[in-house]
Specification:
Four Helix Bundle (Hemerythrin (Met), subunit A), alpha/beta, 4 domains, Beta-Lactamase, Alpha-Beta Plaits, eight-stranded mixed beta barrel
Length: 756
């Protein structure tokens, strides 16, 4: 009611302001219209007189210029016929422009002067025309007439220029008058607008104060009604005084059977409300009602004797928090508990003093699946493996739980006092579960498991140490290419420490010049002639002595040191081969082994070419040996890499052939020159029929592919004779010579008589 009265008092003010503003605007419009009419009249006069005169002057000037140019062209070309055809039209145009000018300005006396000038120009033009038609032409007379006509044309142009200047002065006066009138109009409009603004501001200020108060009261009154959250007013005895529409709407959704919206409030509110009201305090509750999570805030006003309550449905927020918590502790691909959850659970078990074991599970061949089939298939493999392993755990042990770490690594946390036997049995169960192929996208994929285990409290009482020791056991098993389960032992820590120390020493081996090359001769089996040598790296450690390549080459591969080491080996071997040739020894093929990481380096062909240029060794006297397993890691890349090396002109050989998983279809596509039979087959071919069968098959394969065949590891005459009977091309081994340093091999070569 008060708002309505205030608005009724305010209405005459608004009406008066509107009428006054309307009168001022009408007066202003009348004034602007009158001023605009005056400006319009002046503009029309300017356009009708001055501009029209300027147009006629330009036309006259053009006609005089056209006439002058025609006379000059007549003099220059002596073409009287062309001049005569157009002369009459030019004269008529000029006379027409003079007539138009006289109609526009009858009182302009200058027109008589222009007409006289035009008549004289025509006389000289006629005289020039007659001279140019006569034969021979009197050029002196023609120039006299031309100059006289040009002088008259210039007089006419000067007269027209005076007229233009006069019109320009008149136009400038008109422009100034227009500018003055426009400025007066603008000032008048601004003054009127300022008056309106002052009047409107004066009235609006008082109107605004009345409106603000009215709207504030209205907003405060409508706040509870329009609030999207339930709002309540409660008496001191918890009696419901008011509930807004949002409270009733929430009641219908959650507890439609309740009598009123007060059913949404927490049950313990009634008991605590009097104390809150006495202290003019506030409180907050979070509770569950009909499957929803609610939050109620209470604020009591002691002076008014009421409490206000506000209720929020926070179900979505709590659901999002639970989902985030689940994502933080679970793997996104398999939905298994992740490494963080594993560490939390392990810490709790250790704090409780419980016994158990950590099993790290490595899914073998997983990386090869990703390389060949892609990451999407890799995710399918992980999900299927997680399901298979979870089922096996459920069937095997109730006191174990499966986790997913990163990549192909899973983990099992086993809680049992007898963890050694239990982990052994559980390992067998898990490996057995993976024997059946995984059927994924029409493919049957078989995977094996390698497991490393540490036991608590036997192997440690803190999570970090237990994890490191389980990882040490797994790594040792993987380095041995083993499957199954390997328990941690104290010797592994010692081996890991030695491995670390060896790595540090290996990083300094090349800078300290501790690496050297030994060379093992290769002979032609039929003739006994020496055909080449194989370069083999050795590490002469100052304390350890001569370190076996089997000890430091895998370490170099793992740490990446094999790349600079391989470059050093290749450069040193090529340098040595050239040194022997320059010393007068017969040329020998230098065979150099490439590691898997070297072979996968896209810059290898360029490096080989650079070293050959630096050392001067012809490419055909260098042979690069790639292991069968390295060549089969990525078949397409291997073919491209071999083709790039073959283009250099060097020889290519597959080393340790027969120990990998070569596909004959791909082997036939490899641009190879030689196959090397692994010494494991040569060593037992005289005693094991199966090895002899393999060697015989390899010889037949080499013949079918038109490749030379070399057998390594030949130690006895019996082995040599058998290889010769089978048709092997070349041999190397201890029967002929051990790997020798460069100086000893040079002496060996000089003392060698061919054939051997």
């Amino acid at each position: 009611m008060a708002d309505a009265q205030m608005e009724s008092r305010f209405t005459p003010w608004l009406l008066g302001l509107f009428l006054l503003s309307l009168l001022i605007l009408l007066g202003l419009a009348r004034f602007v219209w009158l001023q605009g009419q005056g400006i319009q009249d002046r503009v029309q006069r300017l356009a009708a007189e001055d501009l029209a005169q300027l147009v006629q002057i330009n036309r006259l000037r053009s006609s005089f210029m056209e006439q002058s140019l025609a006379l000059q062209r007549l003099y220059a070309t002596a073409d009287a016929e062309d001049f005569g055809r157009n002369q009459q039209a030019r004269r008529e145009r000029l006379h027409q422009h003079l007539r138009d000018w006289r109609q526009l300005c009858p009182s302009c006396g200058e027109l008589d002067r222009l007409a006289q000038l035009q008549g004289r120009i025509e006389q000289h033009g006629t005289a020039l025309f007659d001279i140019m038609r006569s034969k021979p032409i009197d050029w002196d007379a023609s120039r006299t007439e031309l100059y006289a006509a040009d002088d008259l044309a210039m007089q006419a142009d000067a007269l027209l220029t005076q007229w233009v200047d006069g019109i320009g002065a008149s136009t400038e006066r008109s422009r100034q008058q227009l500018h003055s009138g426009t400025r007066e109009l603008v000032f008048s409009v601004l003054a009127a607008v300022l008056a309106i603004l002052l009047l409107a501001s004066f009235v609006a200020y008082f109107s605004w104060r009345l409106l603000v108060e009215a709207r504030l009261r209205r907003r405060l009154a409508l706040f509870p009604e329009r609030n999207p959250l339930p709002v309540y007013s409660l008496a001191a005895d918890a009696r419901l005084l008011y509930a807004n529409p949002a409270a009733e709407h929430m009641r219908q959704q959650l507890v439609p059977e309740a009598a009123d919206a007060g059913a949404l409030l927490p049950a313990e509110l009634a008991a605590q409300l009097p104390a809150l009201l006495r202290e003019q305090g506030q409180a907050e509750w979070e509770y569950e009602l009909a499957g929803a999570s609610l939050q109620a805030g209470i604020h009591c006003l002691k002076d008014l004797g009421v409490c206000h309550a506000y209720v929020r449905d926070i179900s979505a927020q709590r659901q999002a928090e639970r989902q985030l918590s689940h994502q933080a502790l679970h793997d996104a691909v398999t939905d298994l508990a992740n490494r963080r959850a594993f560490e939390d659970e392990l810490e709790q078990m250790l704090d409780q003093g419980r016994s158990g074991a950590i099993l790290l599970l490595h899914l073998n061949r997983f990386h090869s699946i990703i390389k060949s089939l892609g990451h999407a298939m890799g995710d399918q493999v992980l999900r299927a493996s997680a399901e298979r392993l979870s089922q096996a755990l459920t069937a095997a042990a109730d006191d174990s739980r499966l986790f997913r770490f990163e990549g192909e690594l899973f983990a099992v946390l086993l809680t049992t006092p007898d963890s050694l036997d239990a982990s052994q049995a559980l390992s067998r169960q898990l490996q057995q579960s993976m024997l059946q192929p995984l059927d994924l996208a029409g493919r049957e994929l078989v995977f094996t498991l390698s497991l490393g285990a540490s036991h608590f409290p036997r192997d440690g009482k803190d999570a970090d140490r237990l994890m490191r020791r389980a990882h040490s056991a797994l790594q040792q098993l993987l380095q041995a290419n083993g499957e199954g389960l390997l328990h941690f032992s104290p010797e592994m820590d010692q081996r890991a420490l030695e491995w670390l120390e060896l790595e540090q020493d290996l990083r300094q081996a090349q800078p300290r010049d501790e690496l050297e090359l030994f060379y093992q001769p290769q002979l032609d089996l039929a003739s006994g002639w020496l055909t080449g040598v194989e370069a083999l790296v050795r590490w002469r450690h100052p304390q350890r002595g001569l370190v076996s390549p089997a000890d430091f080459i895998p370490l170099a591969e793992e740490t990446g040191l094999i790349l600079p080491m391989g470059e050093w080996i290749l450069r040193r071997a090529c340098t040595q081969a050239m040194a022997w040739r320059e010393a007068g020894l017969p040329p020998l093929v230098m065979a150099v082994n490439l590691s898997a990481r070297q072979f996968q380096d896209p810059g290898l062909p360029e490096l080989v070419q650079q070293i050959l240029r630096e050392t001067g060794l012809p490419a055909e006297w260098l042979e690069l040996e790639i292991t069968e397993s390295a060549a089969m890691q990525d078949l397409d890349q291997a073919i491209q890499g071999l083709q790039a090396l073959q283009a250099i002109g060097l020889q290519l050989a597959i080393d340790d052939f027969g120990t990998g998983y070569s596909s004959l279809a791909y082997l036939s596509r490899f641009p190879l020159d030689k196959l090397k039979i692994d010494q494991s087959f040569v060593r037992q071919m005289t005693t094991e029929a199966s090895d002899l069968t393999i060697v015989r098959a390899l010889v037949a394969l080499a013949r079918g592919l038109n490749l030379r065949l070399i057998a390594e590891g030949v130690e006895t005459s019996e082995q040599e004779q058998l290889l010769q009977e089978l048709g092997c091309d070349q041999v190397q081994g201890y029967k002929y010579s051990r790997p020798l340093p460069s100086a000893e091999l040079e002496a060996f070569l000089r003392g060698l008589t061919n054939p051997a």
